[in-house]
Amino acid sequence: MVFSMAAPGYPAYAVNFGDPVKLKFDPQNGPGVQLSSYSSVASGGAMEGNLFVADGHAGSPLTSSANFAGLPTDDFGSGARPKVPDFNGITWDGYTFDGWYGTSGNRVETLPYAFPYDSVTTYNAVWKGNETTPYTFRVEHYRDFNTARDEADDSSGWPGDYDDPDLRKFFESTWESTQMANNPISATYRRDIPGYRFKSVLLKNNKVRKYGEASGHGTMTEGGASINASTNAVRGSMPNDYLTAAYRYEPDPTKKFLITVRYVDMEGNQIKAPESRTLPVESDYVIEPAAINSYLIASAELTDGGITDLEGTGVISAEDAGVSLNTSNYHFTGKMPNQAITFTYQYELDPSFVTTLRVKRMDNHGNILREEETRAVQPGVPVEVDVDKMSGYVYPPNIVWEDSLSDVFLDQETKKLNLTPNLQGGTVTITYTEELTDETYWAKVEFYNGQNGSFNGNTAPKFVKKSENNTLAQVTEGLMPTPSPHYSFDGWYKATSNGSNKTGQKLADDTAINASIKLFANFEETEGEWFDLKFVSGPHGTIEGSRTSHVEIGTSWSSLALPSTLPDNFYMFGGWFDENGNRMQNAQTINADQTYTARFIPIGISDDNILAMPDARGTVDSDGSGKVSVSGANENRRYALTDMDYRVVGTKLGSQLKNTGFTGLNPCTSYYVYELNQSANPDIGVILPEHLDPDTFSPPSRVTVPALGTNYDVEDDGAGMKQVVVEPANPETLYAILNMEGDVIDVPGADEDGWVMSSGASPRAVLGGLESNQLYVVVAKQPGEDTAAADKILLGTQVAVIGNTQEQQDYTIALTNGGFITKIMRDGAIIDFDDDKTAVVKAGDVISLDAETTNSQGQGFRQWSALIGKLTLADKTRRNPAITMPEGNLVLQANYYAAAAATPGNASIDYTPKTGAVALDLSDDRMEDLIDELTNNSSDQDAMTAGVDVLYTVKFTQRAPKASESEAVKSEVGNDSVKVPWTLSSVLARQVGGSNKEIPSDVNKEPDIRVYAVLDRSMHGYTDYHLWNLEDLDGEYTCTEVPMEPAPDDMDSGFTGVVSFDANVESTYVLTYLKAHEVKIIDDKRSMEHIIKVRSDTALEDAEGFMDLDIFEDYTDPITGIVWEYKGLGKTASSGNGYDTGEPVTKNLTLHVLYQTEDDAQWQEARQKLLDQISIAQVLKNNQSVSEEDREELSEAIDIALEVANRIYRPTVDELLEAYDTLKALVDSITSGGNNPDDPDNPNQPGGGGSGGGSGGG
């Protein structure tokens, strides 16, 4: 590499022949011309400073100048000319003379014959680093414990003696390397010294020495090395001197090392858990021995102090770091080394120590016979314990002792137990077994019960001490008499000798039991839960059999043993009717005393012999298994159930299906149900269509048994999560749970595919680890069924997993069809309400209801019924009752008696299933219009004219959406994150005379209806709720939005979970919403609170309504007149850190509005300052001499600055000034040529590198 020293340039300009000119030789920082071959002439007037100058005239020979007189010449070309100066025999430490160079950068081998036509011509001496003069480059790494020296950054910071004990030297063997002058060099501090971090760096002899300058006294500004202020690295080129960089280190408080203290006995066994702590290197520590019960300290030792390896790994041992032991108190003190160390304390037994012996005496039931005996005993010293004989108990007793006791022996003659305790003491348990054959001591109590109840607990005879005067309450404690349903426990009586019945009066609880006795638990019917039924005959027929029945509340009509019915000629039995004229249905239950009348009607339409598709429904039975029921089963038909491969699972007669169904089926499974001629009876297991004549079976109805019925609960799992407990579960059935996106949830105990097997005597399956306030789908399958959980989602059961809340939940009560609210009471106080048809209430509120006396058709009030929710009302026929609001929403309908039909037969409308999730609005006007529309056909009119009843049923199906349905509504909404919790569809079914029949072709199968639907709590609190009518037109879905009332998005609508909407049967409706979070914004100055719903993972500033808040407007304090302007939002009213409204919201938040006093002048000044700097940056960006990279960086910085200057939310003065400083720093950096690079420029070429020679100016 060539190292050149460039002097300032001299002005040069063209001249004419004969004009005076000068020829100059500049030695720069090297040896002077006086030491060259020009030494004889380089003196006096020939010298200008250290430059040799020859005067002459342009175009005249150089030899004409007196200053060249006597110098050796080269003779060629135009003539003789002086030789160029040389420095033969002259040495400059580290450098070798390279030659003379002109201003053009060309080396001058010979001088011109004549003086050039420039006023001044200058030649510069250039020297380059040689390869023969090595210098030591020393990079030191040490910790200096001399505080004054360690803090110094001048020459006093250098150690005078490197053997100074105050120096801890790291990796010393790597400190020195050999470099040649002008070689590129670099060094940095070490990051691998355990426990230490960089503190400071010193540098000396880093400048190049000019010719004649002594070591350590270099003054050249060009070349050499320096410290990078940002990285603390040494960068540059090697000077012609011995360069030293000293990196000094200090302890890093974030890097800590482990101290372990062990406690052992004299044999080295651990007697106390080790203790540990961590400390930074050089920290002071004190280690004190622990006081251990029954032990005295014997010795202390540093058992692992590490090693000192400063050279290899940079670590020092505890001994070298400094540690000492105070032998009087066994305290260690020292300085922490930079590695883990271990101290060990050794203990010996305390000879004065005593331990504890405990003696327990109890009977064989665990009852304490004597107070526990506690003794202080010496380890190893034998002890005697009294073991007395006790009346009523077997001797000797059973004796057990802990392993810490030895040499145990019972002397039955002395009744003494001998034993020897060890250090731990111990417990002796003496158990006396009751000698129940001793009738003088024990009384025997036996227990019996009547037929209508039992009792839980231990029913074996009890033996009590005659001397203790036990009472009846005491001897029966824990038996818990459990009456059969609808019976109550009456009390205890004395039993007959064989225990089959009671005798005598009821015994009081305080009856003394001091002799053997037999007790009888008696149960009686519960008042109000048993009813007397009467059966009578209407005209045109008679009845035979029992005409009365005494049954419990809730007895199903289908389970009653009814009298036989004998219709007169030309009449047939039309059904049983209650006192209000309502036909009794199989599913109805008995809830009051009642007289039922057998109605006989004229024989009407005969069997049409048409096989209809069955009206079937799948449910889950009380034991967890599946059940398929057939509504409107024809008693003249047979019915078959098949699997999806049409394989027969079972068959039943229509008469059998009136009171039962197909049971014991697999949950979460689809089946087909066929109506057959009664003569068709396929075998179990055959393929039905292959074994029957096509004329003998109907088209099949597909029916799905859900995964769950009422056999599950949502519980806490004890770990902050939720779990769905299926109990009873179907035996040997696998259950899994999915989210609404169809992803299987990995629950504890599941296999790799997410399935959990039901198990236990009472089978149960637990699906745990669930998040609160989410909607899930539970699915099931049988072992060996090769089906993924996600493939069964359409057959599964939706389960809402609701979290616990400390706030009392709001619910809605809505009344329809003439019902209204008259009063709401809460905690004894009257609550105001605006709408007497709908109110938002809380569980436990007492609500007074009323209804119009008659409806629009003049018919009287009949009873209340619940469309949504659970109505617990003893007398539902009372028009103006008061109810207690249950947990959950409640939609009640006032029902009125039907007007007299124009035909002997009645028409009615109903809906299924009545699970409380979906309901059909059956208010009078809607119901009548719907019945008229559906039955306005000749088939129904003929049937009713013949006295045959017609029933239409709207069958709702609510399920998880299909993937295609989800994609359709997501595409309509335009957001893939939209939630699709359920799909609702419906179909019509028709019964004629109690049998399922096809719907006549001229009946509109898609009538208008009004639907109530429940959005459970897992869907509350979000945003963008929409209900879509989804039409499938040849594989292309069309989505039409359907309005819901109340609107779930409207916070003032009163929505708490129930909506209603207009719909059509056989249409498909899909609910969507977006997850959202509630942001509460408190404006303390205006004393206002705003609630903003923000879609999950979107910014608050993008939320609807946020920009409309008045918080952005200036607020004038009405008292002080101070104007406050919006500053931002914070987590607290006094928050120093603002909340970024552009950040995605991922949880509910409470924020406070932050204000600052108005300071418009200062703000305007700061903004103008920023705008001026933006203008400067714009001009610079348009300058084509600026590089493309810099222009792009300027463009981005200008856009950022403009965003700050023109921001809608006015920036603060600090933000304006910060934007100004950032932009100005970039402009200054570009106009000044950029930051200094790590590698310094060539001294002869300030703008760039290069290895060629240098030249002077001009």
Could you walk me through the main structural features you see in this protein, from its secondary elements to its overall organization?
The protein is mainly β. The protein has eleven domains: 19-129, no CATH class; 134-251, no CATH class; 256-349, Ubiquitin-like (UB roll) (Roll), CATH 3.10.20; 355-434, Ubiquitin-like (UB roll) (Roll); 442-525, Immunoglobulin-like; 530-602, Immunoglobulin-like; 616-705, Immunoglobulin-like (Sandwich); 712-801, Immunoglobulin-like (Sandwich), CATH 2.60.40; and more. It is 9% helix and 40% strand. Strands 1, 2, 3, 4, 7, 8 and 9 form a seven-stranded mixed β-sheet that branches. A hairpin with a 2-residue loop joins strand 72 (983-992) and strand 73. The radius of gyration is 52 Å and the shape is flat. It starts with a strand and ends in a 27-residue tail after the last helix. Residues 259-347 form the MucBP domain.
Structural class: mainly beta
The counted number of beta strands is 83
Cα-to-Cα separation, first versus last residue: 24 Å
Low-confidence stretches: 1-11, 1235-1258
Helix content: under 10%
| Rounded average pLDDT | 87
Biggest β-sheet, characterized? 7 strands, mixed
Strand content: 35-45%
Put simply, the count of helices is 11
Oligomeric state as shown: single chain
Rg, alpha carbons: 52 Å
Overall 3D shape: flat
Number of domains: 11
Organism: Enterocloster bolteae
InterPro entries: Bacterial_rp_domain, MucBP_dom
Pfam families: Flg_new_2, MucBP
Protein name: Argininosuccinate synthase
